Amino acid sequence: MVEVSQRPVESSIRADQVVYKGKTGQWAFVTHRVTGFLVFMFLLLHIVDVSLVNIDADLYNEVHELYGHIVLRLFEVGLLFALVFHALNGLRIVVLDFFPGAIAKERTMTVIVVVVTILAVVPGGYIIIRPWLEGTF
Amino acid sequence: MAVTADPPTAERSTPVRPGRGRRPKQNVETWTWFFMRVSGLILIFLSLAHFAITHIVNDVVDTNASFVAERWDNPLWRLFDWTLLALALGHGLNGVRWSIDDYITSKARRAAVKALVYGTSGVLFAYGTITILTYG
In CA terms, which of A3, A62, B115, B117 is 20 to 30 Å from B57? Predict the structure, then answer.
């Protein structure tokens, strides 16, 4: 709650009474961090699993088959979501950095990022889990 | 002796407007900010193309050892994969560094976590680079 008084604006706001209620921008920020961190963690794992190909091709194939399991397929759909959201939201950040006036359209831009992400992840995710749905894997 | 000349007095006395003043001093963080923007833009294409090839165009179970052998037969794909590795790791590492600076306030813990993250990333970058270079 912000205290209203006759004093100048600067001194009328007390830090302990103000709760930052960020809206779309704050949620975009949080999601950007979380998706970025998860993709980074996957990248570290991915370097290890791909490098197995250099040690033993059969071992690589054995480990690699795990990616076809439905649990990991769902994980891959999550990875697709993280990648697409992070990419599009990153574009939004670049636009805001280089065209400061665009901040007036911040909410619209976040909505576009979310909508386009969903439009990409739903068909993409379907393609990823289709082999499981059809029972071929 | 000043390297850059001060603007004329008349210009200096005008109110400062955002983005219109003298060019601020650049430091390391200016360049990490710029690196994040540039690498991010390149990674949009590299990472989404890589994901599309390995999960959408091909099914993930078909990207086995013989798929890798065929792909890395072409040095341009090795260059593609190494560029993706280097930029993604650099971009991710800097993002993690920013997060560490934001959320870990204890100096000792910050140093310990950074040592762990930088060390792991450095080793895996070298390992991935060796894999791409020496395969086949």
Answer: A62
